[in-house]
């Protein structure tokens, strides 16, 4: 044990120093190289790329196919119908305003014309005064205007509050959800727009592709976050099951209609429905999951 120590102690001082410097330099170089490799990996792998890589590894060994779906909502455009207490309060405010307000120009004109009509019935009525006031022009009384307005009101036909389900302009006081009819095995079911996940994309990108790939529709939606708002799992019909995949896992993303959708979509393939109408379209188990994240009536 003493021999190696004696040999080292017998070496010149400059050899001891140069050897220690060389060893420490090699260690520092190895540490720096390891840090550089780690930094390159962190820079090259963005969050979306890392998420896509994780999905690829997870889906490779899973018997479930991944799908991305979008819950596209058209928000209310006008206020909803008033409730009974709101109607009563509005009538009370209207009555108070009627009792305390001043007469409008039209009401003052009605009073002047009523006064002129009463003076015409008197014996000392002078028609020259009225001719000077109107300068020989055709006289249109306030009553004539009211009659014309009444005729226009009778010709006016308000839009239906239910309307065609293929139009996004129906039920302007409610929030609407877009449904599409899709093939599931040998069945055609109403579902939220969805597409199978493809390698290299995130689930949100799959949901965006599901919206962009709707045939004959030019819809633009603003997606609300990168995290799914809901989840649903179902098994494929036995006729379409394969040995590797037995069903699908659907991840829902929320979006708000921000453009397009003002043209009627293909009937019997697209539907804009209210929350209380979903039960007439969606399967029960699917509906139970969708109602969890649709909060707006």
Protein described:
This protein is α+β, with helices and mostly antiparallel strands and 297 residues long. It is built from nine helices and eight strands. Strands 1, 2, 3, 4, 5, 6, 7 and 8 form an eight-stranded mixed sheet that branches. A hairpin with a 2-residue loop joins β2 (176-184) and β3 (187-191). It is elongated, with a radius of gyration of 39 Å. Residues 1-10, 13-28 and 40-45 have low confidence and may be disordered.
Mind describing the biggest β-sheet?
A: 8 strands, mixed
Beta content comes to 15-25%
- Strand tally: 8
For the record, give the distance between the C-alpha atoms at the N and C termini, rounded to a whole number: 86 Å
Mean pLDDT: 77
Order of helices and strands: HHHEHHHHEEEHEEEEH
User: Could you estimate the helical fraction of the residues in percent?
Assistant: 40-55%
* Helix/strand/pairing category: alpha+beta
How large is the count of helical segments?
9
Specify Rg, calculated over alpha carbons: 39 Å
Q: Name the shape in a single word.
A: elongated
Low-confidence stretches: 1-10, 13-28, 40-45
């Amino acid at each position: 044990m003493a021999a190696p120590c004696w040999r080292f102690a017998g070496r010149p001082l400059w050899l001891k120093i140069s050897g220690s410097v060389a060893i420490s330099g090699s260690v520092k170089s190895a540490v720096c190289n390891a840090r550089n490799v780690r930094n390159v990996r962190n820079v090259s792998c963005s969050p979306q790329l890392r998420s896509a890589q994780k999905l690829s590894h997870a889906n490779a060994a899973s018997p479930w196919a991944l799908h991305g779906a979008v819950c596209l909502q058209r928000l209310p455009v006008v206020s909803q119908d008033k409730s009974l207490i709101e109607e009563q309060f509005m009538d009370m405010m209207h009555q108070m305003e009627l009792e305390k307000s001043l007469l409008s120009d039209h009401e003052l004109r009605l009073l002047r014309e009523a006064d002129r009509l009463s003076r015409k019935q008197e014996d000392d009525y002078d028609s020259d005064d009225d001719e000077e006031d109107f300068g020989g022009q055709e006289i249109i009384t306030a009553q004539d205007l009211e009659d014309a307005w009444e005729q226009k009101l009778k010709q006016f036909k308000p839009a239906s509050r239910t309307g065609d389900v293929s139009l996004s302009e129906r039920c302007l006081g409610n929030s609407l959800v877009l449904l599409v009819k899709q093939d599931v095995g040998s069945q055609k079911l109403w579902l939220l727009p969805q597409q199978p996940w493809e390698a290299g994309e995130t689930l949100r990108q799959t949901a965006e592709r599901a919206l962009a790939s709707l045939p004959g529709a030019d819809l633009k939606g603003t997606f609300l976050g990168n995290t799914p708002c809901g989840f649903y799992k179902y098994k494929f019909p036995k006729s379409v099951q394969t040995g590797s995949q037995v069903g699908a896992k659907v991840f829902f993303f929320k979006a708000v209609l921000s453009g397009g959708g003002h043209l009627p979509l293909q009937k019997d393939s697209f539907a804009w429905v209210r929350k209380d109408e979903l039960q007439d379209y969606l399967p029960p188990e699917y509906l139970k999951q969708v109602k969890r994240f649709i909060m707006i009536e």
